[in-house]
Amino acid sequence: MPSAATWASPTRYSTQCPPGTRSPATSSCPDTLPPGNTGTRSRCSGRPTSASTSTSCLTAVSATAHVRSYDMGRQCHGHAVKSGLAEHHYVCNALLHMYCQCAHVEDAVKVFESVSGFNAFAFNSMINRFLDKGMFDCSVSVVRSMVGEVEQWDHVPYVAVLGHCASTKELLLGRQVHAQALKRRLELSVYVGSALVDMYGKCECACDAHSAFEVLPEKNVVSWTAVMTAYTQNELFEEALQFFLDLKMEGVQPNEFTYAVALNSCAGLAALKNGNALSASAMKTGHWGALSVCNALINMYAKSGSINDAWRVFLSMPWRDVVSWNSIIIGYAHHGLAREAMSVFHDMLFAEEAPSYVTFVGVLSACAQLGLVDEGLYYLNTMMKEMGIKPGREHYTCMVGLLCRDGRLDEAEHFILSNYIGTDVVAWKSLLGSCQVYKNYGLGHRVAEQILQLKPNDVGTYVMLSNMYAKANRWDGVVKVRKLMRERGVRKEPGVSWIQVGSEVHVFTSDDKNHQWINQITRKLRELIDQIKVIGYVPNFAVVLHDVEDEQKEEHLMYHSEKMALAFGLIHSPEGATIRIMKNLRICDDCHVAMKLISLVTRRRIVVRDTVRFHCIEDGVCSCDDHW
Ligand SMILES: [Zn+2]
Ligand SMILES: [Zn+2]
Description:
The chain has helices at 51-67, 70-82, 89-101, 105-114, 120-132, 136-149, 155-168, 171-183, 190-202, 206-214, 221-233, 237-249, 256-269, 272-284, 291-303, 307-316, 322-334, 338-350, 357-370, 373-385, 393-405, 409-418, 425-437, 441-454, 459-471, 475-488, 518-534, 550-558, 561-572, 589-602, and strands at 42-43, 115-116, 496-501, 504-509, 579-583, 606-609, 614-618, 621-622. By secondary structure, it is mainly alpha-helical. The strands form two sheets. Strands 4-3-5-6-7-8 form a six-stranded mixed sheet, covered by helices on one side.
């Protein structure tokens, strides 16, 4: 070990370094190269030094990397420069690793750029570090120099370059690397194969991911998890869960990441029962407490409408990361539980967890639900100025929702136009929805026209427009909208709702009179509608776009998929049980009103997940407060 004196500040060496050598005078890393040497890469020399000196230097640098002490690491670097070890192959690798571990990537870059002849592992660690930090430009340049400098490519560089292609979604480069790997028969290595699966998955090519997986002669838990992840990322949740079953059939033991992916697939399907079964299985196999599993459980419960279970998992976690906090905040916000979302956000700040981009989406959406305009603006400012997070469309859309919620519709329009989100259909639709709520039909028409210019086939907008005309008793307008739809060939995507009863998922399509249970469902629906008419239900014909008589319109409304699913759920579930329905479109006005009244007469809690949010309907009130 070096003596105590050599541990002093690197500036001590400035006077001692002989002229012409790299002086660590201003920085311990070689950014102060002597004239004539600046910027050129010298080769890792491995120049003869005493073995014990290089070993002790190596040990010292590794030790500082281990404890992540940047200051001590810099001192070691200074010592290495002084004793001529700074270009030694192993010392360079250790220095790179140390600077990366201490989160001083810029110093690592200086070491990396000043010396050449690194091995594949060094390239690998640089690429991974850049990818972790989202510094894709830097990883590209490392990939380029790796292609030029590393002669012997085994699986390590392939994994690194494929990781880069996955993160930057560079499918073309990824395919080229795949072709290279094929020539060397390396695609059959489980490491390269899994990296290929991951790359194709992230580049939205689930089929190619599957092919890369299929050819693997030996599939381990990593490759199985990679293919499941590829499918989940491409929203092929059922297939991903099928892989999970296959893996178990093959006798492969799932690890915590496999469970996490499977649970995220359940979240995508809102398949609470399968999620519960996975949770039990993870518990049995001792994976339940893992951070990734707990985060996935929160996500699964939050997306399946069981926010209380999500909260229970959150509370039980021994430690949490930013993903855990974000999942629960967003979960509460989607459930219309904005106060809870804000309270968790304050707990997060108290726990000194740094909020991220996603956190603020949840916070701003909670502020919007609570109508907290000033707070919303305050957090948007804090995010930009104090946290240095660049706001994205999601944040701006929340701000539009916030202004709308407060009835400041003109301001919202101005906000959209002045923040360069004028082409964002979601923001305009949020404003259009509020124009309906606040009966500002003049602005509503303008906004609808704006949306139809951007997206001429947006059925929802035609429905809202027709709705606004109907509410203003402008039936000529309603006729005009229908005509426009016919002319433009706009067809309403059929509404599909699904509900899980027992272990089976039952799917209902609007107006589907051939459903196996149609007689039973019709009887139940008629009975329910008679009951709610007594307490004030009036069918909302404005949402019916068909040109038919009122009587037929009423029938169209009755057979909306979510009403059919609800009737089926009421028949086939025990008294008092919560009904959970998923829908492919936004729930319509008529179903929303009807469900609120049905929750009163049946004393049931009804949870509907539509494309926008959750509607937790109980005792005649919806958690969305009629804004969605
Ligand atoms: Zn409906
Ligand atoms: Zn609602």
